[in-house]
Design goal:
Elements lengths: L1 H15 L1 E4 L7 E4 L28 E5 L5 E6 L5 E7 L13 H8 L9 H10 L4 E4 L5 E7 L4 H13 L5 H16 L4 H13 L21 H11 L5 E7 L3 H11 L23 E5 L6 E8 L8 H11 L1 E3 H4 L13 H7 L4 E10 L4 E9 L4 H14 L6 H16 L4 H15 L5 H9 L3 H11 L5 E7 L12 H5 L7 H4 L2
Parallel strand pairs: 4-8, 9-14
Antiparallel strand pairs: 1-2, 3-4, 5-7, 5-8, 6-7, 10-13, 10-14, 11-12, 12-13
């Protein structure tokens, strides 16, 4: 009786949830709004290749190249703050054993004084702009981002031009920074960063791109004024510099101010750049046993497509599919069963109660990249953490659940629609112009992502993950894997999808 009454009430509700249309001489028609699956397909998602209506409208963007080779880019949108990012192709990859750490020193010393400003005057100038200043070091590019109130555009650009082009790099400043930089290198407390740094080293043992982005700590005492000025003169030249603005910024005004502030940079690109050759991967395992750590840290990485590779966006999308996992968010405390996850790797992790964290990382460069997962968990599950990442990625070569694709696609769409932080947008613009030579409109980006249907993703996974060599980093109480901490078929077997389940279940 209860079910019959309930069904009757639902029918009445559906009867009211209609649009009634009447045509002359015709019978009254009812167009249902609810309780119909007539127009739904693929779990009610948009067809592959389609994008939300809001993403079909692009923000105004422009790119201008100045006489000395500096490229000026901008993306206009309304925001309380404007931001300028200067991207310089002068990362740690281009250092040598003798100059290792030079880019790190330069990133610190640009705020220590110029030909016309002291350290205190630079700090006061940044504060008076109403925003903040952030530096990010990279293996290929460095980014310098300043946020400010829109009316302070001229002052912000002039300040960036001065500190990047006219810093002193004096011997006294260098000596004053050495102790702080050395402490920064030896006291790195971010465990994920330790793993990713070690992953670069073990994957590129024969190339300087695998060396620490902060520099080799034993070389800190050897850095001097001559080394820094030579490194700055070689790499801080017009063709290596991108100035990108985001927020309420007029492109013509920006280009005019940049032309004045960055006009003194040389237009001559260096004829020889250290370590410009393509690095070859040295797939291997590095085991850093430390029984004093509470949990084990595991990183598993594949060689991946570079920025210019056609598979770049699909592999970027795989990072969205894998996502990030935290035990306090995705376990049975909040769901009836881990089998209800839409993400395959999270479903497996939900059955491992002491695996705390999983993060997907993608580090693309101009001619190479690494892609993989980072795990933190109890040493009891060390074997499962070490094998799970490559097993899932290689499994995608034969099957990927459409629900995972739709969920990741919706995540990308939401991120594109919520790009309101001018600092982040200016960094994205500068990076894309550095590697692609243009700013990809978000409608094009969304359409490219929307076109990634499961069959295409299967083929991309087969090219990049199926039966491929990999690099593994183990750190912590790793005694349970000590007997297999050398590269052999045991590890390679785990890149064969579910064919490797016998190893996962051990």
């Amino acid at each position: 009786m209860f079910l019959r009454n309930r069904l009757h009430s639902l029918r009445n509700l559906a009867r009211f949830s209609t649009i009634q249309t009447t045509r002359p001489g015709a019978v009254e028609a009812r167009v249902p709004l609810q309780f119909t699956k007539r127009n739904l397909s693929e779990f009610g998602e948009l067809p592959f290749g389609d994008i939300p209506e809001a993403l079909k409208y692009d923000r105004p963007t422009a790119v201008t190249t100045l006489d000395n080779g500096v490229r000026v880019a901008s993306e206009y949108f309304l925001s309380p703050l404007s931001s300028i990012t200067v991207s310089v192709n002068a990362g740690s990859r281009y250092e040598t054993l003798e100059t290792s750490g030079a880019s790190n020193f330069i990133s610190k010393l640009i705020l220590r004084g110029t030909e016309s400003k002291t350290r205190e005057q630079i700090d006061d100038e940044i504060d008076s702009l109403g925003g903040n200043f952030h530096v990010k070091l990279g293996r290929e590019i460095q980014t310098y981002t300043i946020s400010f109130e829109p009316q302070n555009l001229d002052r912000a650009v002039n300040l960036l031009g001065e500190i990047l082009g006219k810093s002193l790099f004096s011997a006294a400043q260098i000596e004053a920074e050495k102790e702080a930089i050395y402490k920064e290198q030896v006291s790195m407390d971010d465990q994920a960063r330790v793993i990713t740094e070690a992953a670069h080293y073990t994957n590129y043992r024969d190339h300087f791109i695998g060396q620490p982005v902060l520099g080799i700590r034993e070389n800190v005492p050897n850095i001097n004024e001559e080394i820094l000025k030579a490194h700055h003169k070689t790499h801080f030249v017009g063709p290596n510099i991108i100035v990108a603005g985001a927020g309420p910024i007029n492109h013509e005004n920006l280009a005019k101010v940049v032309s004045s502030a960055f006009g003194s940079f040389s237009s001559q690109a260096p004829t020889h750049v250290n370590n410009a050759e393509k690095p070859f991967a040295t797939h291997s395992i590095i085991n850093m046993r430390d029984d004093e750590l509470t949990n084990a840290n595991v990183g598993v990485f594949f060689n991946a497509p570079s920025w210019s590779d056609p598979d770049f966006l699909p592999v970027y999308f795989f990072g969205k599919i894998l996502g990030d996992y935290r035990a306090d968010r995705y376990t049975g405390a909040h769901l009836n069963t881990t089998q209800r996850q839409y993400n395959q790797i999270h479903m497996f992790l939900g059955d491992l109660p002491d695996v705390q964290i999983q993060k997907a990382f993608y580090f693309p460069y101009s001619d190479t990249a690494i892609f993989g997962n980072y795990f933190v968990g109890n040493e009891v599950y060390l074997h499962q953490m070490a094998v799970l990442s490559q097993m899932i990625l290689s499994e995608y070569a034969s099957f990927i659940n459409a629900a995972e694709v739709f969920r990741a696609r919706a995540k990308v769409f939401n991120e594109l629609l919520s790009q309101a932080n001018s600092a982040k947008v200016s960094k994205d613009v500068a990076t894309q112009v550095q590697y692609w030579g243009r700013r990809m409109p978000r409608s094009e980006f969304a359409r490219r992502i929307s076109a990634l249907e499961p069959g295409l993703l299967n083929r991309v996974a087969q090219r990049n993950f199926w039966d491929k060599d990999l690099s593994v980093v183990l750190w912590g109480p790793t005694h349970l894997l000590d007997e297999s901490a050398h590269y052999n078929r045991y590890w390679k077997r785990s890149t064969l999808g579910t064919f490797a389940m016998m190893y996962y279940d051990q």
